[in-house]
Amino acid sequence: MKFLLTLTLLASTLTAQAITIGAYNIRNFDYDERSRVKTNKPELANILEDLKADVLSVEEINNTEEFKSFVASRLPGYKAELSLCGGAHGQRLGFLYNTASVELLSFNEDLAVSNPGGSEVCNSGSRPLAIGLFKIKATNQKFFGITVHLKSGSNDSSVYKRNQQYSIIRETIQELQYKTGVKDFYVAGDFNTTEFISRGSDYQKLNAIVKELGMVNLTARVACTAYWWGGTDDGIETPSILDHVLVTPGLLKKEPTTKVGGHCQKVSCQQVAERDLGVSYEGVSDHCPVTSKIQ
Predict the structure, then answer these.
(1) Segments in the chain forming alpha helices (H)
(2) Under 8 Å CB-to-CB from 215, ≥6 apart: which residues?
(3) Per the structure, how many domains does the chain have?
(4) What is the pLDDT of residues 175-218, one digit of tens each?
(5) CATH number for position 203
(6) Are 207 and 170 in contact (CB under 8 A)?
(7) pTM (2 d.p.)
(8) How many distinct helices (H) and strands (E) make up the chain?
């Protein structure tokens, strides 16, 4: 009986320590001016509930007050912490987190990636880094989360800027590790790695930074994280890999399980007609949520 009780307590402890992290670019919440589409909030709520994430990096939150109100009304037990700055298009970013499993100890934003080498201005250039220090309540383990939304585009200047941003992210992590003594980090969000599938500069630079920091790219083997029109007006949408979740090994207590949700999961990352992608693509985002159970 004592042995069985010990196993039960051990199982309960392991369950309590299970932590899921991830990222989701929620297209220009709560109204996308380009497509003139309001965010389908019931569908978004369903997606977020299904993820069961403990810490989720979120991007493109244009209406921050409405997002916080949405979280309060539709996602009990969760809170949102978002940046004040959002780059040239007002696309704020930050975290959605489960208050039962993690505690947010501090939050700040870093504008260094917005205009590398230039002046730091809140609402111009690219989005800042959103940096949160979290504590896992079950174990008291501290870790930093960094939400990113790097420069978009596949032209040479965009790729060059992303390469600069990768270097700044590396320097930011190394500086925080040195100043705070906290060694564990995750970095997640929309890296806009337009050359990842083709194994181009984005792929090479991201892999180099991951290796240099001793991190693990949990999304290295996912089939897709987003869809786009593919550059041809044939009505067929094309999968791509733009979003990533990177972690330090100290956050990996067991073999991680990574998955994509939304329309990526629905069509298994195949090329399909736009209508087949469904309501999450039409009314929530061209991106899909990606999550990893890491503990």
Answers:
(1) 2-17, 41-51, 64-74, 156-180, 201-212, 262-266, 274-277, 279-283
(2) 185, 187, 246, 247, 248, 249
(3) 1
(4) 999 999 999 999 999 999 999 999 999 999 999 999 999 999 99
(5) 3.60.10.10
(6) no
(7) 0.94
(8) 8, 17
